[in-house]
Amino acid sequence: MTVLQRVATSDIVDSVTAQANTIEAAHEHTEGELSDSDVKVSVTGSNASISDCLDQYDWFLVEDGTGEPDPAVTRGHFTGSAQLTLTTGGWKVSAFAASTSPC
């Protein structure tokens, strides 16, 4: 079991794997550190939601050949949100989205 499978549902693992393959096929990679702030958590029974502000100034895609940031990607501080579900193995991310809305 991968680390990702320990914290996310199989749908999220499949989605993240597909996104990573797309980035690799585009000959890009990420640089920097993705950080968040202003985290808000809400729990209702066996479901939870998390929202936060993602710092995408200091974490971004760069082109492998040039090392330059991908010009098609907007950088900034954007709202991220996740839905979690309580499973027998603990809380797992069941949905995640990063918006283009500034924090």
The major pleated sheet works out as: 4 strands, antiparallel
User: Could you name the CATH class?
Assistant: Alpha Beta
What's the count of strands?
Answer: 6
Helix run count: 2
Please provide a written account of the structure.
The structure is a single chain. By secondary structure, this protein is α+β, with helices and mostly antiparallel strands. The protein has one domain (3-102): Nuclear Transport Factor 2, Chain: A, CATH 3.10.450. The protein is 20% helix and 51% strand. The protein has helices at 3-7, 10-25, and strands at residues 28-32, 35-44, 47-55, 59-63, 77-87, 90-102. Strand 5 and strand 6 (90-102) form a beta hairpin. The radius of gyration is 15 Å and the shape is flat. The model has no long low-confidence stretch (mean pLDDT 90).
Question: In a nutshell, what does this entry contain?
Answer:
The protein is α+β, with helices and mostly antiparallel strands. The protein has helices at 3-7, 10-25; strands at 28-32, 35-44, 47-55, 59-63, 77-87, 90-102. Strands 2-3-5-6 form a four-stranded antiparallel β-sheet. A two-stranded antiparallel sheet has the order 1-4.
Could you list some keywords that capture this structure?
103 residues, Nuclear Transport Factor 2, Chain: A, flat
Give the helix/strand layout:
Layout: H1 3-7, H2 10-25, E1 28-32, E2 35-44, E3 47-55, E4 59-63, E5 77-87, E6 90-102
Antiparallel strand pairs: 1-4, 2-3, 3-5, 5-6
